[in-house]
Amino acid sequence: MGSLSIPFSNPEEEEEETNLAKAKLDQSHFLKLFKCQQNYLNHFFQNLDLSQTLTFTQTLLNARGTIFFTGVGKSGFVAQKISQTLVSLGIKSGFLSPVDALHGDIGILSSKDLLVLFSKSGNTEELLRLVPCAKAKGVYLISVTSAKPNGLMPLCDLNVHLPLERELCPFDLAPPQQLVIWMMISGGRSLNFGEIFLFPSCWIKEFYNQYAFLFHCYELVKDLMKKKEELPVCREHDLIMDQLVELTSKGCGCLLVINDDYHLLGTFTDGDLRRTLKASGEGIFKLTVGEMCNRNPRTIDPDSMAVEAMQKMESPPSPVQFLPVLNDDNVLIGIITLHGLVSAGL
């Protein structure tokens, strides 16, 4: 029978571990590290080539196929995170492991695709071996590196340089500063370099509805609309000045003009009130809602998705703040407002 091996105990090592456990952190040392971190970040933003990053962003915007990201080690984790963010926006994206690619996964690439290679040095062996295989398939290659010149730059179609003064590590070995550049905090959530430049203002409106659809597609108009006593209803023969309380108290900014069968005849907004008052002066006291209401308002059905209501509100010729909700018999059953949609997270 074999015997159990007893681990060798070194008293000096145990004493050193005990001393480390008892060591107290120095506040001034932390302050110095934070100051260095700030200086290194300032260096990054002051030396970043904005025209280069704009080209990078525009290239991704124009992608006809799938945008693949790749990297080794910590760079690979960053590449995966960017890919996951794009997928959440409804953009075709994926992470391609360079090792797996060289063992058959390269088959997923096509000539319409883009491949973004993350490497601090630009000399990562696995990526250098992957490049000729990807080029043979006609893939557009983009390198994102911090050292130049490097091996990837002459091999790729586009190169993005992330200026790095040095690492926070005193021996310049561990890459905390590189990760800070790639994984910066913005707007209360963790964003990396790639994501920051994937969110220029021109993207926001384009992907807003896609993002809202993905995360609020289960919400229907009937789940968010106001109904019954919450509705600001009136009759067409009602005097405008007699309906001011109804117009202002329901928080919808409008009146819904109905007949005895609750069929919608038109809408009258607080904007209509101001325009009528300006045009008619004291004559407004004799005007009925029916005389001044909009007889052809936009409406929506209760089973439509909330994101469709948002799109309908924003459509030409001019945006509106609400939509009456009608059932199949043209009976008014609710109202959905822009404020309600925003409150729901759209």
UniProtKB/TrEMBL annotation:
Q: Which UniProt keywords apply?
A: CBS domain, Isomerase
Supply the EC number(s). 5.3.1.13
Q: Which residues form the CBS domain?
A: 225-287, 293-346
Q: Does the keyword Kinase apply?
A: no
Question: What CDD domains does this protein's entry cite?
Answer: CBS_pair_SIS_assoc, SIS_Kpsf
Q: Which GO terms describe its molecular function?
A: arabinose-5-phosphate isomerase activity; carbohydrate derivative binding
What is the main EC category here?
isomerase
Q: Name one GO biological process term.
A: carbohydrate derivative metabolic process
Per the database record, which ranges form the SIS domain?
A: 56-194
Q: Which InterPro entries match?
A: CBS_dom, CBS_dom_sf, SIS_dom, SIS_dom_sf, SIS_Kpsf
- Supply the name of the protein: Arabinose-5-phosphate isomerase
Species whose genome carries this gene: Handroanthus impetiginosus
